[in-house]
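[Q] Does anyone have a clean structure-token version of this?
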Amino acid sequence: MPKEKLFDEAEVLQKAMLIFWEKGYSATSVEELVKGMGISRSSLYDTFKGKKELFERVFDTYRYFHEEGLENFMEKQEDVLVGLKLIFQKVIAEDSSADSCKGCFVVNTATELLPAPSTSYENQAILQHKEKMEDLFLNFLHKGVEKGQITDGKDFAAISRLLFTLMMGLRVVGKMKQDPEKAIASVEAVLSLLTD
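[A] Here you go.
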């Protein structure tokens, strides 16, 4: 008979996410996870198999909610250019206001665990996230063209890659407590490519 779980799995995954996000994969010990998640060592292994498998669950959860959140936001935007600026303003505001700036979990993981073998979990997961984010930007740009808000005839695949790179770069620079006004000016310079 399987053991009855005495904890909320979603809740302990959230706690594990915060630990991995702040400390990184390598620097996080099983003891820290057990203490921070508020579960026993045996519960961690029974439920998640181990630290690596737990990290993968956490990272997949983060990616899913991050990607879904951006997609939902984009679907609600009537003005694509305004929507793009709001997306980047939110990124900049989060990094500027955080007392302990954790940055982006994906960026942190990429800088810590890559390069890695192409078949590894971390390489595949980060590549899938990159491709999903670029697809979201690309679809959003096409929406702007259809609405007459963005000049047609541009290489939108390349621009979508540029927007993703800009977002990731802002996350890295955000750890340096960048000047929000200068960051916004950089965003506006990139967005100007869409209407020239």
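[Q] Thanks! Anything notable?
[A] The first helix runs from residue 9 to 23.
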